[in-house]
Amino acid sequence: ATILGIESSCDETSASICIDGEIRSNIISNQTVHEKFGGVIPELASRAHQQNIIPTVSEAIRVAKIHKNEIDAIAFTRGPGLLGSLLVGTSFAKAFALARNIPLIEVNHMQGHILAHFIEDPKPKFPFLCLTVSGGHTQIVLVKNYFDMELVGQTIDDAAGEAFDKTAKILNLPYPGGPLIDKLAKEGNPRFKFPEPQIKDFDFSFSGLKTAILYFVQQNTKENPNFLQENINDICASVQDRIISILLKKLKLAANQLEIVDVAIAGGVSANSGLRSALVSLAEQEHWNVYIPKFEYCTDNAAMIAIAGYYKYLNNDFVSQEIAPLARWSVSN
Ligand code: ATP
Ligand code: MG
Ligand code: FE
């Protein structure tokens, strides 16, 4: 079956063609309008999606070397995300399905991040544990089957990606800060020790870390106005180290308690080179089978929506034209 996948939950407009479980194209239009505001402006995101969606879909069809009449079903991100952004993808998908008289498939964006692991081999075996770390979420998910997932832990305040992005703002780095902190940390020594939050079970917290960094920078800048410029690499390395240690401590705890040895990471922050290598080391120590997505499938993309759509297509799991997007939607249903 040939599936067209559409992703528009935040600030990436993306379209992908999946044929019998194989990704043939994955076109991602990044929105640059948000850079000067230091964060995503929902109204501008929605307008940019409207401008991008048709060219992005056309490009995905062209790169896949198919004709649009060959598409058997259309899968779209129903949520969670920005409502105005989700509406563009949802409306497009509904119109396309109606015009072509093909089935419509809803996909949960957080399930999509996890199911990106089924694009290429080796594919994880069920049940596995997935640490999903993105701009809006930080979750530990027990994945029992493609669409049978249980949330076992999550952040009680900021997401890991938010911790990267808000720290970057404090450090006067441009948005989105995650990739830049990653790059600067490579030349740094993690010699500053930031506090580790004490949070119960498999839950996370990052807002205390953000505050600690803010005070640390303010205090040191008072004593030395050039403190930031002189120590930017070491500060980035220290912040990144602490975020990684917070994440992996809880992932290890969850895997040990649930007795799971197949462990994956997903979401935008799983592109972080420090997290990727720390996870590989931990997996060796713990004798885990570890699954790390290719870079292009970490941040938002439609390939993950198309592959999730393919597995739903096999189950005849379709939705009607009455479907509406959901700003909030749990990974577990
Ligand atoms: P959600 O999936 O929760 O709805 P989102 O879709 O906005 O949120 P993603 O696109 O999955 O999130 O991820 C974006 C986040 O990933 C941003 O916070 C960004 O800073 C972070 N990120 C991307 N690359 C890196 C990296 N190399 N190191 C750290 N963080 C990164
Ligand atoms: Mg984004
Ligand atoms: Fe995402």
UniProtKB/TrEMBL annotation:
<keyword id="KW-0963">Cytoplasm</keyword>
<dbReference type="GO" id="GO:0061711">
    <property type="term" value="F:tRNA N(6)-L-threonylcarbamoyladenine synthase activity"/>
</dbReference>
<feature type="binding site">
    <location>
        <begin position="132"/>
        <end position="136"/>
    </location>
    <ligand>
        <name>substrate</name>
    </ligand>
</feature>
<feature type="binding site">
    <location>
        <position position="109"/>
    </location>
    <ligand>
        <name>Fe cation</name>
    </ligand>
</feature>
<keyword id="KW-0808">Transferase</keyword>
<dbReference type="Pfam" id="PF00814">
    <property type="entry name" value="TsaD"/>
</dbReference>
<feature type="binding site">
    <location>
        <position position="178"/>
    </location>
    <ligand>
        <name>substrate</name>
    </ligand>
</feature>
<dbReference type="InterPro" id="IPR000905">
    <property type="entry name" value="Gcp-like_dom"/>
</dbReference>
<feature type="binding site">
    <location>
        <position position="113"/>
    </location>
    <ligand>
        <name>Fe cation</name>
    </ligand>
</feature>
<keyword id="KW-0408">Iron</keyword>
<keyword id="KW-0479">Metal-binding</keyword>
<dbReference type="InterPro" id="IPR017861">
    <property type="entry name" value="KAE1/TsaD"/>
</dbReference>
<comment type="function">
    <text>Required for the formation of a threonylcarbamoyl group on adenosine at position 37 (t(6)A37) in tRNAs that read codons beginning with adenine. Is involved in the transfer of the threonylcarbamoyl moiety of threonylcarbamoyl-AMP (TC-AMP) to the N6 group of A37, together with TsaE and TsaB. TsaD likely plays a direct catalytic role in this reaction.</text>
</comment>
<feature type="binding site">
    <location>
        <position position="300"/>
    </location>
    <ligand>
        <name>Fe cation</name>
    </ligand>
</feature>
<feature type="domain" description="Gcp-like">
    <location>
        <begin position="22"/>
        <end position="306"/>
    </location>
</feature>
<dbReference type="InterPro" id="IPR043129">
    <property type="entry name" value="ATPase_NBD"/>
</dbReference>
<protein>
    <recommendedName>
        <fullName>tRNA N6-adenosine threonylcarbamoyltransferase</fullName>
        <ecNumber>2.3.1.234</ecNumber>
    </recommendedName>
</protein>
<comment type="similarity">
    <text>Belongs to the KAE1 / TsaD family.</text>
</comment>
<keyword id="KW-0012">Acyltransferase</keyword>
<feature type="binding site">
    <location>
        <position position="182"/>
    </location>
    <ligand>
        <name>substrate</name>
    </ligand>
</feature>
<feature type="binding site">
    <location>
        <position position="165"/>
    </location>
    <ligand>
        <name>substrate</name>
    </ligand>
</feature>
<dbReference type="InterPro" id="IPR022450">
    <property type="entry name" value="TsaD"/>
</dbReference>
<keyword id="KW-0819">tRNA processing</keyword>
<feature type="binding site">
    <location>
        <position position="272"/>
    </location>
    <ligand>
        <name>substrate</name>
    </ligand>
</feature>
